[in-house]
Amino acid sequence: PFFTTTRGRGGTGLGLHIVFNLITQKLKGSIHCDSQKGKGTTFMISLPHTVEPD
To answer: Which residue ranges traverse the bilayer (predicted)?
Structure first.
């Protein structure tokens, strides 16, 4: 579900995947992305006030 524009130019395309997994699995939060061509991209990250131990 993730997209990279730097394939073949040094980027691995794993950045958002790592962030998504960290936020949703380890921190029990959520991440939302809103992108508009010519305007930019906004990421909203929501985290719980407390994190329960594994």
So the answer is: none
**pLDDT score recorded for residue 20:** 92
- Taking the C-alpha atoms of residue 33 and residue 37, their distance in angstroms, rounded to an integer, is 13
Q: Structural domain of residue 26, as residue ranges?
A: 1-49
* Contact between residue 15 and residue 23 where contact means Cβ atoms under 8 Å apart: no
| Total domains in the fold of the chain | 1
Q: How far is CA 40 from the centre of its chain?
A: 15
pTM value?
Answer: 0.64
